[in-house]
From TrEMBL:
InterPro entries documented for this protein: Homeodomain-like_sf (IPR009057), HTH-type_Tx_Regulator (IPR050624), HTH_TetR (IPR001647)
Identification of the protein by name: Unannotated protein
Record bears the keyword DNA-binding: yes
Key words of the record: DNA-binding
Gene Ontology MF terms: DNA binding
Residue ranges of every copy of the HTH tetR-type domain listed in the record: 31-91
Gene3D superfamilies per record: Tetracycline Repressor, domain 2
Pfam families: TetR_N
PANTHER family: ACREF/ENVCD OPERON REPRESSOR-RELATED, ACREF_ENVCD OPERON REPRESSOR-RELATED
Length: 191
């Protein structure tokens, strides 16, 4: 009995000395690089606009080499797609981490209304913004719509809420308006 537990202990100790994931540092570095690229892209959209932004500028602002940028993304469209996916994930998490449905919608509304990249796109790239906002058959929109359905607990009100949020990308609200309208939507959803 003692020998068996000793053998088990030796096996356990040898497992502890092995790295849990020998690729963890590389994965972490890859993720940091992706985040830098996407944050740099969003910053460029906020300052120079979508059309004037180049892959070279993205690499420069993200402080990565051009080769690194192209190892992660093949072109500007793929960087923009990754940025949209990242923002959609951020919005879904924001809604999920809210304490109430009203808070979730209010926080989403404020985030969208105060986003500097969207603000600059309204001024410098309105056609690109309109094109993006009108492609609601995309899987990103479906993911956001599913998350909103969980917040408002009503599929019909979910569609209305998604359209309300899209409207704010074009016509932002103040924080007070965001709160009032979020309360009205949730009240309507609960009728």
């Amino acid at each position: 009995m003692f020998q068996k537990s000793l053998r088990t202990e030796r096996v356990s100790l040898s497992l502890l000395s092995m790295p849990l994931n020998k690729y963890a540092p590389q994965v972490a570095n890859h993720r940091r690089t992706q985040v830098a690229i996407l944050e740099g892209t969003k910053s460029l959209i906020a300052t120079v606009g979508l059309k004037k932004m180049s892959m070279i500028e993205i690499a420069d602002i993200a402080q990565v080499s051009r080769a690194t940028l192209y190892n992660h993304y093949r072109d500007k469209d793929s960087v923009l797609r990754a940025l949209c996916e990242s923002e959609a994930e951020r919005f879904v998490n924001l809604a999920r981490n809210s304490t109430s449905a009203i808070e979730a919608l209010e926080r989403l509304s404020i985030e969208i209304s105060q986003d500097k990249a969207l603000e600059n796109m309204r001024k410098s790239d309105p056609e690109s913004l309109s094109l993006f906002l009108s492609s609601q058959e995309d899987r990103l929109w479906k993911a956001v719509s599913s998350a909103i359905t969980l917040v408002v607990n009503n599929p019909v009100m979910s569609e209305l809420t998604v359209r309300w949020l899209i409207g704010q990308a074009l016509h932002p609200l103040t924080p007070t308006q965001s709160r009032q309208q979020a309360e009205a939507i949730i009240k309507s959803a609960n009728l």
